[in-house]
């Protein structure tokens, strides 16, 4: 038995947004950020599996152990990149063909070759990147649409955690947001004020 990759073709039907981010489940504590990759590029990979035997019975016995799993596809859940959610990858059996070489001299070996054609619905990912964790949001509201307008209301949102490591929604009771790590026990603390936040 042997196999070869015969074709690679872009699959536009499975196209995802090229700027969509897929976050990893592991947080990088050393840099304080989160790693991610952009949306995968879908490709159809065509494979051919060759089964060569001397007797028809041997070839059929091998086929009986392969074909029942494909109906017409066999799907496996695989983790393509550590830290990313597993993906379902279908492997489709497109067809089976047989070639029997039986004509020739008596000293030539008879051969039976079965060819199984498969298509794998694969994905290719780009390089891993890293982004910082947003810990503080500052939104300023103004009724005038002109530039340099003084904001009239300020809205802030940050993680909230007391000095006893308890989650809180009160910014006054919370420690400084820069001291709160992603894995800490925190809650969302928001506030509305008429003056700019001191941060």
Report what the structure shows:
The protein has 199 residues and is mainly beta. The protein has 2 domains: 2-130, 2-Layer Sandwich (STM4215-like); 134-193, no CATH class. The protein has 1 helix and 11 strands; from the N terminus they run E-E-E-E-H-E-E-E-E-E-E-E. The chain has one helix spanning 56-64; strands at residues 2-10, 21-28, 33-38, 41-53, 73-78, 87-101, 111-124, 129-132, 137-141, 153-160, 187-193. The strands form 3 sheets. The chain has a 5-stranded antiparallel beta sheet. A 3-stranded antiparallel beta sheet has the order 2-3-8, with no helix packed on it. The protein has a 3-stranded antiparallel beta sheet with strand order 9-10-11, with no helix packed on it. A hairpin with an 8-residue loop joins strand 5 and strand 6 (87-101). The longest helix is centred in the first third of the chain and has 9 residues, at 56-64. The protein starts with a strand and ends in a 6-residue tail after the last strand.
């Amino acid at each position: 038995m042997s196999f070869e990759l015969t074709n690679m073709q872009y699959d536009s039907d499975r196209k995802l947004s090229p700027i969509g981010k897929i976050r990893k489940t592991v947080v990088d504590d050393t840099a304080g950020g989160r790693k991610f990759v952009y949306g995968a590029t879908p490709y159809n990979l065509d494979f051919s599996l060759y089964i060569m035997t001397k007797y028809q019975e041997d070839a059929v016995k091998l086929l009986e152990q392969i074909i029942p799993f494909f109906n017409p596809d066999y799907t496996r859940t695989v983790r393509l990149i550590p830290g990313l959610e597993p993906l379902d990858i279908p492997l489709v059996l497109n067809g089976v063909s047989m070639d029997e070489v039986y004509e020739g001299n008596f000293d030539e070996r008879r051969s039976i070759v079965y060819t199984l054609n498969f298509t794998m619905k694969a994905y290719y990912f780009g390089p891993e990147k890293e982004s910082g964790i947003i810990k503080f949001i500052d939104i300023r509201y103004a009724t005038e649409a002109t530039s340099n307008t003084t904001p009239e209301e300020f809205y802030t949102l940050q993680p909230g955690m007391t000095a006893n490591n308890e989650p809180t929604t009160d910014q006054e009771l919370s420690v400084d947001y820069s001291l709160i790590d992603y894995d800490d026990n925190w809650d969302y603390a928001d506030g509305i004020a008429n003056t700019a936040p001191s941060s």
